[in-house]
Amino acid sequence: MRFPKLASRRITIALSLALLGALLLIAIPGAGLVVSSGLPDVRQLDAMLDACQVTSVFEAEPRPGETGGKTDRLLCPDAVGPTGFSEALLSAVVASEDERFLGHRGVDDLAVLRSLLPGFPGGGSTITQQVARTLFLNDERLLGYAAPGKLLRKLREWHVALAIEALRDKRQILTIYLNIAPLGNGIIGFDSAARYYFGKPARDLDAMEAATLVGMLPQPMNRQPFKEDMAEAASAANAADRVLAKMLALGLVTPAEATAAQAKVTRVLRKGTLSRPPHETLLATLRPIEYRRVRDFAAVQLAERGLTNEATRIFLTLDPELQALADQATAKPPKDAEMAGVVLGPQAQVLAISGGTYSTSSWNPAWRANRSIGSIAKPLLYSLALEHAGDMPKTWSTAPLKGYNPAEPNGACRSGLTLETYLKYSCNRPFVSIAAREPALATQRVTAFGWHAPDNPLLIATGGVHSNPMDVALGYTAFRNGGRLLRPQVIVAATGTGGRLLTFEEPDEGRRVLAPDTANAVRAALFQPTSAGGSAAAARGRKHAAAVWGKTGTSDDDRDAWFVGSTVGWTAAILAWREAPGVGQMSGGGLSAVRFGRMVDAYWPDRNWTGMRDGRLRDGGAAVYGWWAHPQRLWNWLAAKATMVLAIALLAMALGLLTGHRSKAPTPPAEDPDPDSVREV
Hints:
Layout: H1 5-34, H2 42-49, E1 52-55, E2 73-75, H3 87-97, H4 109-116, H5 127-136, H6 140-143, H7 147-167, H8 170-180, H9 190-198, H10 207-215, H11 230-249, H12 255-270, H13 279-286, H14 292-304, E3 313-316, H15 320-329, E4 338-344, E5 350-354, H16 365-368, E6 371-372, H17 378-387, H18 419-424, H19 429-437, H20 439-448, E7 466-467, H21 469-480, E8 484-485, E9 491-495, E10 501-504, E11 511-512, H22 516-525, E12 549-554, E13 560-567, E14 570-577, H23 590-620, H24 631-640, H25 642-663
Antiparallel strand pairs: 1-2, 1-3, 3-9, 4-5, 4-14, 6-7, 8-11, 9-10, 12-13, 13-14
């Protein structure tokens, strides 16, 4: 039997509604997916989101007043943690840049739909889209894209933004944005901007100061707040007032707070009381850490891959906090001495490279030098003694040796003690005895670690081995990696024009240089030198905030003074050297151990406190994240969900029409009952 036309029309309408609802749900992700060829996949993007990058993209066509040329810039998404920004700044950014930030999925569907309708403004990019563009894509304003290029870039931007939202929560995305936003004069990030414009960290910004910085976007060079140009200061004041008005409308400031902030805008900006800082302040702000040595090390690896001229962004393993600490540790060496250092992660990621003043010499001994490492090689001889315990004596002696008889560093080196105790006090003769018993194996062990072995194996324990901080630190990471020596990783990834992925570094499996049990035993023994009374006790720092293991080393006449060791999360090698015989601080490697201890003191206590209390309290309590706490914020959240709600409603209507059609479908007429049948009552 044929269905009536009404049922057929109902099916058509239902299918149309279902198609429209499905398009609303998948149109933006689908469009981005179509043009995603060459971009990083989700796994790669996850790793790249956490990485600092060196890029020259921003320098393609510098805006008026900004530094041009070939100078690159460093973008670090996690340079400042979420507790490093004031609540007023968080509120100002969301209110001004993306008021539906907490509700959308990375792309504001409502703004996209409005832009497709004539007579409706489309709105700007979301915060997540700005993160995608700044970190991974190129800005068409700088590269001069034509209209088709703009559409392609926008579709790719949508694709990356949706992926970022799937990988990071809103707090993390907002923190990334606050760290990478360009704020004029070549300054990157709100913390650097706060220090330059207002002389304070971003966590101390009040509502007026936050509104001023946010109001400078997206044209910071035309809204400089300094009295030297009152026209620009007036423009900055007007922009700050608009930001404050948006904050008030969203309930992120009270009327009294808004009034006080507006009065300060008039007092500071319109009346011109804010002076431009000295040029030296700007230079210090533009390069808060010396990252160029890590960049140079990465450039060598890029050259090996033939990508030097193609890469526009190099994503690095650099840790900005540890780089700053390494710079401090190797600064101010003793008279006539120099210092250099390397910090590696657990899997040999290059977290920091430090040395002298870069402008004086770009040659870095941290990975190019070939200096005597002194007693640093003794753990390798200790590993031989463990592996050949059956061929070694039960007790050891510090009595004078035949042929080569080095002096002992102190009176604690007496006969009859364990090798672990001799390692603690850096005694010489027991380890020379090991090399004398297994000279070929001792030389092979040193060579396997990538260090330069002496012609006479007896000199391995006392300064005959030569290397540099990079290779020495790599050797000690083998003790924490089950005996595997890894290749240093400095590049996470590199991309070219349009965000095209050129290379992505996979984890290095390394090569085995020690059995796992032997490596673990050596690491356990290396806690002895850093224990109380040990030769490297100073490496624990004064606060004893974290466990430390490692070893000092010195060469003849104290020309070279080393410490290499590990704490939770990283391994560092610090070298101080001079060409003339050393005296004082450099004796016994004490200087380098002390500098390592300062790094531990600076790195761990504050981090332990933040992890226990401060991070959760401040980050979790920011009012900007309470989208339900104010009618306008609640409305914005619902509006951001409008497309999804509409799509689901259309799909529900389609399902209802189809269900209704089935329930009202005509049924065939009943057959006549059997006249012979009898019905009982």
